[in-house]
Amino acid sequence: EIVLTQSPGTLSLSPGERATLSCRVSQTVSNDYLAWYQQKRGQPPRLLIYGASFRATGIPDKFSGSGSGTDFTLTISRLEPEDSAVYFCQHHSLSFTFGPGTKVDIK
Amino acid sequence: EVQLVESGGGLVQPGGSLRLSCAASGFTFSDHAMHWVRQAPGKSPEYVSSIGKSGDTYYINAVKGRFTVSRDNSKNTLYLQMGSLKPEDMAVYYCVRRYNAYDYWGQGTLVTVSS
Q1: B79 exposed, middle or buried (CB, 10 Å; 0-12, 13-18, 19+)?
Q2: Long-range contacts at A25-32 (CB < 8 A, ≥ 24 apart)
Q3: Which of B6, B98, B100, B107 to probe the A interface (max A CBs under 10 A)?
Q4: Dist. CA B65–CA B76, nearest whole Å
Q5: For position B85, what pLDDT does the model report?
Q6: How many CB atoms within 10 Å of residue B75?
Q7: Mutate to test the interface with A, among B38, B102, B103, B107 (most CBs of A within 10 A)
Q8: In chain A, what is the greatest distance between 2 CA atoms, to the nearest angstrom?
Q9: What angle do CA B104, A78, A52 make, to 5 degrees?
Q10: Which residue in chain A has the smallest CA separation from B94?
Q11: Residue B66: closest CA among B52, B51, B53, B48
Q12: CB proximity B47 to A under 8 Å
């Protein structure tokens, strides 16, 4: 069973700062099948990054993904209040398992 | 514009049944694998079931034997027949297109299992 662990659980930052979110996978992710999603309250998740580092259609370049193997990172630069959300990572193959999420608060 | 619109959720007693539907538009439905993903309140999303372009089906162990996924490509519609529902099945159920991960999601339909 593939398990995804995300850290930190909550991140509180100010507008203009940079957020660094971590996702660790219990097994090596083949072909970098690692995705990141943003979910705002009352909305479905929105795909930000797939294949560890490829931005989805329409996603601004302030969102970037990196990593390989078992350790992956989502970086959000130039934070704005609208970036407040929960961010999930997912192994988008085989089990399609999601991580528990990181809540990002922008004050 | 890609659109996925779920329907069929509601309140059902434990042991009951529901049939969810997902109407797809804005893309060639038959060219894509489609997934059902659920999310319980305050929890992360959970893959439930999927159906490939050729009709191959997959389920998580928790719903195997109780849920059936199907598709009607002539109607551009995805279905999830849910039976023997349990309180732990209560969640928002999303219809999702799989292409470069889950690139499009519906707004979801709420399934409440309670007596």
Answers
A1: buried
A2: A25/A70, A25/A71, A25/A72, A25/A91, A26/A1, A26/A2, A26/A70, A27/A2, A27/A70, A28/A69, A28/A70, A29/A68, A29/A69, A29/A70, A29/A72, A29/A91, A30/A93, A31/A93, A32/A67, A32/A68
A3: B100
A4: 25
A5: 98
A6: 12
A7: B102
A8: 38
A9: 45
A10: A44
A11: B48
A12: yes
For A53, other C-beta atoms within 10 Å of its C-beta total 16
Whether the Cβ atoms of residue B79 and residue B20 lie closer than 8 Å to each other: yes
- Measured distance CA(A16)–CA(A68) in Å, rounded: 27
Judged by CB atoms closer than 8 Å, whether chains meet at A98 and B101 is answered as no
Per DSSP, the residues of A5-54 read: EEE-SEEEE-TT--EEEEEEESS--GGG-EEEEEE-TTS--EEEEETTTE
Tell which residue, A47, A6, A27, has the closest CA to residue A94.
Answer: A27
Are the beta carbons of B105 and A100 separated by less than 8 Å?
Answer: no
Pairing, β A102-106 against β A10-13: parallel
**Over pLDDT 70: what percentage of chain B?**
100
Beta bridge partners of B36: B49, B95
Mean pLDDT per 10-residue section of chain A, whose length is 107 residues: 96 97 94 95 97 97 96 97 98 92 96
